[in-house]
Design brief:
By secondary structure, the chain is of the alpha/beta class. Helix content is 37%, strand content 24%. The chain has a domain at 1-81 and 161-168 and 190-247: 3-Layer(aba) Sandwich (Rossmann fold), CATH 3.40.50.300. It has ten helices and ten strands. Strand 1 (6-17) and strand 2 (20-31) form a beta hairpin.
Length: 264
């Protein structure tokens, strides 16, 4: 694929933590203007990959490009074009959500009047308007996640990196957010790159998925194409596809008989 049409591109991207290989020679190409689900079990390397792509962690080896810019040599250009909700939210807890959004908007060069307009819209979307004057210190985990999502959207980024974005968020706000993200993809060709291990979410929301396990990318493509490659029926749940590719087992092989009452 033409590199100019790619939102994310990596070549042999690798990250070691001492003797542990968290991401192992990752080769990945994500087109612009899609919702891409990065799937894997806990500890598979999803968050580490996102941290490298967004400049939060330096790679041990390999290269990566985001929005056409090298993640090492043009890190500032990358950061200008992305919005990020990391696993560790990193909010200023003694600010209100309104103050947090103003800070982020000004850092990205958004006009004050536009920040105010967008803040009102985002607070209404995320049902935070009633808590706008409370310090983030007093927010629940779900409210903090909503605040982080609002910060990632305030400057209308070209590429969104979201690490488990809907975890702890209520169903009503989740539905509204998914609709907004889909509209951004459709109208602005925004790219949404998000990690999750919730298969139902990925199946309903993603245009393409990549499956990573123990730091290695096992497969990537649209869910219908991956079903065909795996020899599964067209209506097979993504969970079945995931388990087959990752190499898990559908049966517990009797290991939990003592718990289920099957042991005699």
């Amino acid at each position: 694929m033409n590199a100019s049409l790619l939102a994310v591109e990596t070549h042999q991207l690798t990250k070691h933590f001492d003797d542990v290989i968290a991401v192992d020679h990752l080769n990945l190409s994500v087109p612009r203007g899609i919702i891409f689900g990065f799937l894997g079990p806990n500890g598979a390397g999803k968050s580490t990959t996102i941290h490298m792509l967004t400049g939060l962690l330096p790679p041990t080896g390999g290269t990566g490009r985001v929005g056409g810019f090298d993640i090492r040599e043009a890190a500032l250009e990358v950061k200008k074009r992305i919005g990020v909700v990391p696993e560790e939210l990193g909010l200023y807890e003694r600010l209100t959500v309104t103050e947090q959004l103003e800070l982020v908007g000004r850092l990205y060069g958004v006009r004050r009047s536009e920040i105010q307009r967008r803040t009102t819209t985002l607070l209404n979307l995320l049902e935070l308007e009633g808590s706008a004057d409370k310090m983030i210190l007093d927010y629940s985990q779900g409210m903090r996640k909503k605040t982080a999502l609002a910060c990632a959207l305030i400057h209308t980024p070209d590429i969104l990196f979201l690490d488990e974005p809907f975890q702890s968020i209520d169903p009503i706000s989740t539905k509204a957010l998914k609709a907004v993200l889909r509209e951004m993809v459709h109208r602005r060709e925004t790219t949404v790159f998000f990690s999750t291990h919730v298969m139902e979410l990925a199946e309903r929301f993603c245009d393409q998925v990549g499956i990573i396990h123990k730091g290695r990318l096992l497969t990537v493509g649209s869910i219908p194409d991956l079903r065909v490659q795996a020899g599964l029926p067209a209506d097979a749940p993504l969970e079945d596809l995931f388990v087959q590719i990752v190499g898990g087992q559908d049966e517990d092989d009797g290991l939990l008989n003592w718990l289920t009452g099957a042991e005699k």
